[in-house]
Amino acid sequence: MKTVKIDARGMHYTPLNQKIRAAIADGAEEIILDNVLGQRFIGDGLRGNVCIIVNGVPGGDLGIFMSGPTCIVHGNAEHAPGNTMDRGMLVIHGSAGDAVAHSMRGGKVFVKNNIGYRGGIHMKQYEVEARPILVVGGTAHSFLGEYMAGGLVLVLGIGKDKAMTDRGIGSGIHGGEIIIRGEVDDYLLGTGAKKFKFTESDLERIAPIIKSFCEQFGYDAAEFLDTNYTKIGPASSRPFASKYVWE
Amino acid sequence: MSHGNNSEIIDEYITLHSSLSIFRVIKMCGIIGFIDRTKSRMDGSSIKAALSLMNERGSGDGAGYAAYGIYPEYADYYALHVFFDNLGEPKKKVDELLQQLGEIVHQEEIPTTPQPGIKKVHIPWRYFFKPSEDLMEGKMASENDVVTYIVMEVNANVKGATICSSGKNMGVFKASGWPEDVANFYRIEDYKGYIWLGHNRYPTNSPGWWGGAHPFNLLNWSVVHNGEITSYGTNQRYVEGYGYKCSLFTDTEVVAYLFDLLGRQHGLSYEMVVKALAPPFWDEIDRMPAKEAELNKAVRLTYGSALMNGPFAIVVGTENGIVGFTDRIKLRPLVVGENGNRLYISSEEAAIRVLDPEVKNVYTPRAGEPIIGRFIE
Question: How far apart are CA A217 and CA A219, in angstroms?
């Protein structure tokens, strides 16, 4: 495997992304970015099967428009990793800021610890082949899955008494599903969101995702393979029709 | 979409997201706050570096710093930092007002070094001033009242003069420009402080001028702010009822006066001030235990006109420490980190790591949650 190392210390994101692109054009299959600190848009619009290892704290919009590559972060991420991502995978060995997986339309974002406000905002999907997935090992702040139109958000609450304690879950959701480990108090649900029973067939559907997440972070997947989850989805297909349409 | 040109992609990306409120203002202001709780002082060079890391959040139209602990030789005097258009009539008026209300023990032009990126449209000046004690009765019962009166009077009525800071043993250094240019202009590395605030401005709804750069200050309160105070009109009317005058054309000014009114005049704790400005929602209050609910109701009813709406992340410097908080639904980022006696609050974790690569306990506070760093005795 051809590996390329880039020292990102003090480098602006434009030359950094140019170097990444040049390395890919040169046949790199793995790119290791050392001393990353605050550079935005890393992996912007990249295609192909390259794996990017980020050592440090990348800036906002990590993996924006990315379509195919894998990006593994050894550190925390700032706002909106996975923004409008199309395919591929982000694995964050830490926590992430607000608006994680913003407008994501395919691929996977795995966050080991916690995420900020509005995780999964505006996520969308097309049929089954373009279905974005956000998995959070810890917990998420308010407005998780806000205005969500498709895809899956899964919160495991590892190390927490309750996976979710912040309000506004699924506020304005009109598609997709939010699955949360354990019980979720009714008052935490946002406007337009509704709880559904989590069934054996749901478990069968998400089991491969749980296994894949656990494999990345070294957890035992067996601990999570039961039906102790709450499923949250839209109360109707057009929960806000009356707000925008006069008939 | 072309992938060759990054700025093209970003333009396209911004256009794409222009309809989403959360992204409409993606490039808007970077803030940072630092305190050493033991009052061990740090020079301004690393704050400059941390702020420069967030240049994506600014536009070169304004930057500024507040530093506490920088004038120990004049610690008992108010340090008035003033922007003069010229040293003629405006300065004569300010001199007269100060001499009438107290004693100027020292005054000088604030030392600056010309920078290609900064047009010196004002002359930054500083006075060390003590209000005379025989004035203090009635409406001006304390030194702080006298100085507040002076700041309001000069900023509203003296053409060509703006007082940009008026605390003790502290000062605000700000101008139109990028953070590193403003820092180099004021030779910020020559000052050593135990509290530092920094701000990288991207003006959106008010003019980019020296007085509109952050921090905004009154007495020992200094405010750096990312966002907008959409309730500005209500808040402005409220503080003007108590004699404050908003004359600097930017919403953030009112936050400094709200802190002075609630924190100094009304004697609220920092926690209670934040509770008044960014209170819990009514349905949250309804779920609180009876006693806590009663307190929160009372604060909301008493300070309804102080409630700040709109997106904001704010750090306030005070005489006892720093206070960070965001709006009630967290429309702006705020990250906290600690290392021993040092507390850091910023828009981005990376900026904190520039100040302190070994920072511990990095986390994002909840909406409206006060993050307070106090000096330890």
Answer: 6
Helix (H, G, I), strand (E, B) or coil at A91: strand
8 A C-beta contact, residue B178 and residue B162: no
pLDDT tens-place string over residues A55-111: 999 999 999 999 999 999 999 999 999 999 999 999 999 999 999 999 999 999 999
Per domain, the residue ranges of chain B are: 29-70+169-265+309-374
Spatial strand order in the sheet of A67-74: A3-7, A30-37, A51-57, A67-74, A87-92, A108-111, A133-136, A149-155, A175-181, A229-234, A193-196
Any idea which architecture B29-70+169-265+309-374 has in CATH?
4-Layer Sandwich (3.60)
User: Coil, strand or helix: which one is B215?
Assistant: coil
Q: Show the tokens assigned to B356.
A: 């302190």
Tell me which amino acid residue B287 is: R
Distance from CA of B13 to the nearest CA of A (A): 9
Provide the whole-model pTM. Answer: 0.93
**Superfamily of domain covering A3-244:** Glutamate synthase, alpha subunit, C-terminal domain (2.160.20.60)
∠B99-B101-B105 over CA atoms, to 5°?
50
Catalytic entry in B1, B11, B22, B29: B29
Q: Rounded to the nearest 10 degrees, what angle do helices B6-17 and A13-25 cross at? A: 110
B264 is written with which tokens?
A: 């100094």
Helix H or strand E segment including A70: strand A67-74
Picking from B64, B63, B67, B74, the residue whose alpha carbon sits closest to that of residue B36 is B67
A97 has a chain B CB within 8 A of its CB? yes
pLDDT digits (tens, 9 = 90+) for B83-128: 999 999 999 999 999 999 999 999 999 999 999 999 999 999 999 9
* Pairing status of strand B78-84 against strand B123-131: antiparallel
Q: Is B302 on the interface with A (CB under 8 A)?
A: no
B94 Rama class: left (phi>0) / alpha (psi -120 to 50) / beta: alpha
- Of A40, A41, A76, nearest to B362 by CB-CB distance is A76
Verify whether residue B164 is a known catalytic residue.
no
